[in-house]
Specification:
The protein folds into 2 domains: 79 residues, 2-Layer Sandwich (Gyrase A, domain 2), CATH 3.30.1360; 41 residues. 48% of the residues lie in helices and 22% in strands. The protein has a 4-stranded antiparallel sheet, covered by helices on one side. Strand 1 and strand 2 form a beta hairpin. The termini are far apart.
Length: 122
């Protein structure tokens, strides 16, 4: 049976906090994103936050305090498909190793253009 995204989020949270539970799942009409709130204990909240950020790099993961009962909740905003593509492209284009590779590729293109011009001129 295929595990849902929500179960995967909960499993990741439960790895650090056995008392973690899904507090709320809602879909936002404005951008078709899904908001998942995971209730955690105060002790494990930062660890759960870091684990969810590592597991879901395209999502926005924040820690909020429930104003009603004071519990800490990790809030995972899962973007729609188009936003996921845009975020993935941004992460790929502006990654740590991308700048040297872009400089190298541009240098090779300039060298190729110069060699073509010299070959035609001679």
């Amino acid at each position: 049976m295929v595990k849902s995204v929500y179960n995967c989020i909960l499993d990741r949270a439960k790895a650090l906090d056995m008392n973690a539970s899904i507090a709320n799942i809602s879909r936002r009409d404005a951008d078709d994103a899904t908001l998942v709130r995971v209730r955690t204990s105060s002790d494990a909240a930062m660890g759960v936050l870091a684990a969810l950020r590592a597991a879901w790099p395209l999502a926005t993961v924040t820690l909020v305090e429930n104003a009603i009962d004071g519990n800490k909740e990790a809030q995972v905003l899962l973007p729609n498909e188009q936003d996921q593509r845009d975020i993935a492209k941004m992460l790929a284009n502006y990654g740590v190793g991308q700048k040297p590779l872009r400089i190298l590729a541009n240098g090779l293109l300039v060298a190729f253009a110069i060699s073509c011009v010299l070959r035609i001129a001679l």
